[in-house]
Amino acid sequence: VPCHGTFLFGPPTADGSDLFVVGERDSDILLFCLDSETGLVRWEQLLASAGRGINLDVARKSWTAPVSVRGSLVVCPTTTGWVTAVDRVSRQIVWSTRLQERNDTEELTESSFDIRNQQINIDGRWIPSQPLLVGDRILIAAQEFPDEHSEHAAELICLDAVTGKKLWAVPKTS
Questions:
Q1: Which DSSP state fits 130?
Q2: Structure pTM?
């Protein structure tokens, strides 16, 4: 069974005879390249690690991580606040970018992630969408924000496609 034991974050993105999909297995976020004829895994690449497994994270379980592909570049949301680009030819990570600066004073507790303790404003989040590749830029509307502390608001984020460097961000307004 392809990707057995893996939670897939949505349907794959097709490009030629390849299907690309992001999934989580044992708290590891992975990019899978599947054969479009058989559905079998051609290769996989570790993208990130989740602090909490998907079975314990109700919010992340409802998110998607649709991949975008252009040429050899595969841009992968991770549902963990990071976006990672993979070279499909070398199967290596090109860059990985944290979408928001981390506040080192944040203390994560069990109750931080407890859905019963959070007021969720649906209008404050982006709807699921693929990263948009425009010229040498990537536009990201990440579902991860606002974060569990409501310190980081949802933003439209622009990254450099070559380096992954954050170029600008514009707050989402409802």
A1: -
A2: 0.83
